[in-house]
Amino acid sequence: MNRKKPTNKDLRFLYSSENGRIATNVLVGVSGLTGVPKPKKKYDAKRPTRDEFVLEELANQLIEAKSESSEVLLTVWGMELPVRGRIENMDSRTGKVHIQKNGETTKVAFMDIMKVETRGIDTESE
């Protein structure tokens, strides 16, 4: 297959004047050169959406656990291990729940809490 050798004029069209981007389709077929493909966008995994009834039930479980000073086990989106401890504070301004265990406080965003367990927690495992 005979392809036309690109000339300087053809090569000038490779570079568009828009922010120095390489034009991808200008010389396709004319000189046999192919353009540079755009890089794929990387999207972060999104938190699952939950309706207001599920969120209200989670909030009620957290309020009950705080009032009873019981230990909770929280399954948190984005964390490999669950968070265990007693609820020290629920900050409505920041939307974070402060969990304390062995003098160490962990702050967890309310919207990241997927599951709250209060009963049947094995307290001797940690």
UniProtKB/TrEMBL annotation:
Pfam families: YolD. It comes from the Bacteria. This is YolD-like family protein. It comes from Paenibacillus oceani.
